[in-house]
Design brief:
Structural class: alpha+beta
Helix content: 10-25%
Radius of gyration: 22 Å
Distance between the termini: 62 Å
Largest sheet: 10 strands, mixed
Strand content: 25-35%
Number of strands: 18
Shape: globular
Order of helices and strands: EHEEHEEEHHHEEEEEEEEEHEEE
């Protein structure tokens, strides 16, 4: 029988928000083994720390992943370089020339590992439902907003995930997710630190080897304590499963693939016109309800006070003498000339 432990709140959500972006200091775990935590005042679930099943196979898959240069990410908030792979699905990002909802590059390049991680999402969902059935029900209600095409499996609570390798992340909330819990299995050897601190309850979760951490990552501020390798082959790898809110606007896989192809053709044609006539400003962008693709599947348009209110955009060329005061990645001097940009008309 796993203990259910009431924990008192020691900071308000607003007080915890003040920590967002700052480095997490060194903390020692406030508990060790499997446990379930409930808010001392409301009785609502706060956290689960449970042993994983099929641990040997999970570890084998995770340690078999290759970490190339493309997985090396600089995080300005912490000043650290962290290795990470995102898996599952991601929504459109037109401003980054990602015109359709797609499978992540990890899924394309590592199909066997991706298939296992998708399978393990169902294992974790059953474990979550076994200890906090109300949380599983909430997650299943939320995920209905996303078509099955964009879930890790037909029965999955999650759409995506990230594999972090020795990542001492600063305090943050998981802002791009649905209002639903995330689950984070961890495998580690020869690393001190790397615990999860939740300042609202002043809980320090040990993130033990072969344990999963279950909590509401979008609601609770959290961060990872510093870590030190004690052996050359040491590792601490966490796999965070979550449901991305942006995927609720995705149509079927076939529709998204066709739409992306059309958008790429349009963009290449515009670049061709620009090359032929450098003074051609290109087409004006108008971002509104009508600019989205036809409805299909789970896509629904908002009905708030700004629904349907278009936003006209125009491209502004760089102006000689304007300085870009933003700090380049890794330090250095600002660029001498501000780059061109899209702006509201």
């Amino acid at each position: 029988m796993i203990s259910r432990i009431p924990v008192p709140r020691v900071r308000t959500a607003e007080e915890a928000t003040e920590l967002v972006g700052s480095k997490v200091p060194t903390h020692e775990p406030t508990f060790r083994g499997p446990a379930l935590f409930l808010d001392a005042d409301t009785g609502e679930p706060v956290m689960g720390h449970l042993p994983m099943t099929d641990l040997d196979r999970f570890r084998s898959v995770i340690l078999g992943i290759e970490w190339g240069g493309s997985t090396d990410n600089y995080r300005a908030a912490s000043g650290n370089r962290n290795k990470s792979w995102t898996f599952g699905y991601r929504p459109r990002k037109p401003m980054m020339r990602n015109e359709g909802c797609v499978l992540s590059s990890f899924g394309r390049d590592n199909p066997a590992a991706h298939a296992y991680l998708a399978h393990y999402a169902d294992v974790l969902a059953r474990q979550l439902g076994g200890v906090f059935p109300e949380i599983e029900i909430m997650g299943r209600d939320v995920i209905q907003q996303v078509l099955p095409d964009w879930r890790l499996s037909d029965d999955s609570l999650w759409t995506s995930g990230v594999i972090n390798k020795e990542s001492s992340l600063p305090y943050h909330r998981d802002g791009n997710n649905f209002d639903a819990w995330s689950v984070m299995p961890v495998v580690r050897r020869g690393v001190r630190g790397g615990h999860l601190h939740v300042p609202e309850y002043d809980m320090v979760v040990p993130c033990r080897d072969g344990y999963s951490v279950m909590f509401f990552g979008k609601k609770l501020v959290h961060g990872v304590t510093p870590m030190v390798k004690t052996t050359p082959d040491a590792y601490r790898i966490s796999v965070v499963y979550y449901a991305l809110r942006g995927l609720k606007d995705c149509h079927t896989f076939a529709e998204e693939t066709a739409r992306a192809a059309v958008k790429r053709t349009e963009r290449e044609a515009a670049l061709g016109r620009k090359a032929a006539d450098p003074n051609d400003p290109g087409p004006e962008r108008v971002l509104n309800r009508d600019s989205r693709p036809a409805e299909g599947g789970a896509a629904r348009f908002g009905s708030g006070r700004n629904a349907g209110r278009g936003r006209a955009m125009t491209y502004e060329e760089p102006r000689p003498g304007d300085r870009d005061e933003s700090q380049p990645r890794g330090g250095g001097e600002p660029k001498a000339v501000r780059p061109g940009r899209w702006r509201s008309m």
